[in-house]
Amino acid sequence: MKFEFIGGYSEVGKNMTLVSIGDESVVLDMGLYLPAVVNHLEGNINKMSRDELIKLGAIPDDNSIDKKSVNGIVFGHAHLDHIGAAPYLAKKYRCDFFGTAYTLGILKTLFDDKKLRLRNRFIEIKFDSKYRLCGNFSIEFRHMTHSIMDAAMTVIHTSEGKIAYSNDYKIDYKPVLVSAFDNNLFSELAPVKVLVLDSLYGDVQNKTPSESEAREMLKREFSKLSGNRNAIIVTTFASHIPRLKSIVEYGRTLGRKIVFLGRSLHKYVEVAKELNMVDFADVDIIGYRNLINKKLKEISKNRDKYIIVCTGNQGEKGSVLVRMAEDETPFEFRGDDVVIFSCRTIPTIETIENRERLEGILKGRNVQMIKDVHVSGHGHQGDARILIELLKPEHIILSHGPPDKVKGNREVALKLGYTDRNVHIVQDGEILEI
Ligand SMILES: [Zn+2]
Questions:
Q1: Which residue, of 17, 75, 253, 315, has the fewest CB within 10 Å?
Q2: How far is residue 73's CA from residue 30's CA, in Å, rounded to a whole number?
Q3: Are 31 and 85 in contact (CB under 8 A)?
Q4: How many domains does the chain contain in total?
């Protein structure tokens, strides 16, 4: 089998991998490089062409792929760094798209945003059921704990052995809203031929804490706010439905009305509601800018009656929190207003600068900031060790970052008895035959 690393191996983002056997092949993920999108283009890329975006480094460069040979494009989960490039790249492929229900639900909204009508079919695959793609490949999803609904480890059954594409994952035995990581689901696949291993935090020791710890942190912060009369604002990743659930549940205990403000929040939450994954019936969810402004006007007159949950956790330009801070909305920050950041700043130069700028403004208004109320959705070294021991791969390919970032997991593998012949650190554009 042959791996071609199209994107996500020289940077954190724009994940895309091609696997081929003979003249058949399958594409895994088609993601955006978010820093390029958020910063250079201020999020507005809809009018740009495929070629312009490739040149900017915002989407993977798939020019080397013989599109006719591709039998399917498989999306493992709905984060934009895994599906966001599809509306720009997919039209050159004639094959179908595969994903779980939530992943396809979000993917469809991306195609709708661009008003794209493609001939390709969206085919939902339920967990633990196999789909025969072509002579050499059958695909299957195994429920994986991560930080988005319906996340999957993609398993490709081939005539030459199984490929486990675990990009992204964490091992969470006590998650919120979704079922726990189940060792048996993975050990029964062992031994696999190849494991593609999300190694974004391969440089961090121990195990990633469970989402239930983030829930406890939120509980503590909300309990301290009991009796507070100031404005309370919470910001987190729009796609993190389990986190939003915790925020809503502890927010309710303060007796305030909860409102979700922001276009991406609206998108991710509405798809989850349609699939009956959450019940946010008592939450107002507003996506359009003029309606958000109208709501903020109302809130500013009754600041102690609401909890605002909004976009802007990374200080992104155009997000609701940044527009509020920059006085582009009818809401005015006052001293002792509270902003909870239920996130971690993504470690890219652009994001760090954006967050510093936002925090600078909030500090200038004497806003109380509560930061890092968060645990990661990506596995650390402890998670990598568990997954390797369960799947017993012959080969391990480290993914989701440049060589320097991912190399920590090489140490994990070497300690488990692997050698550099079987642990692969690669870069975009490389080809690996196994
Ligand atoms: Zn992800």
A1: 253
A2: 8
A3: yes
A4: 2
CA of 79 to the centre of ligand 1 (A): 5
**CA angle (127, 130, 136) in 5-degree steps:** 140
Distance 367 CA to ligand 1 centre (A): 31
For ligand 1, the distance from its centroid to the CA atom of residue 13, given in whole angstroms, is 10
74 and 52 within one domain: yes
Q: How far apart are CA 70 and CA 265, in angstroms?
A: 33
Q: Are residues 338 and 319 in the same domain?
A: yes
375 in a domain, yes or no? no
| Å from CA of 9 to ligand 1 middle | 15
Q: How far is the CA of 363 from the centre of ligand 1 (A)?
A: 31
Q: What are phi and psi of 433, to 5 degrees?
A: -105, 130
Chain segment 235-275, per-residue pLDDT in tens = 999 999 999 999 999 999 999 999 999 999 999 999 999 99
Are 193 and 215 contained in the same domain?
Answer: no
**109 and 173 in a common domain:** yes
pTM of the model: 0.95
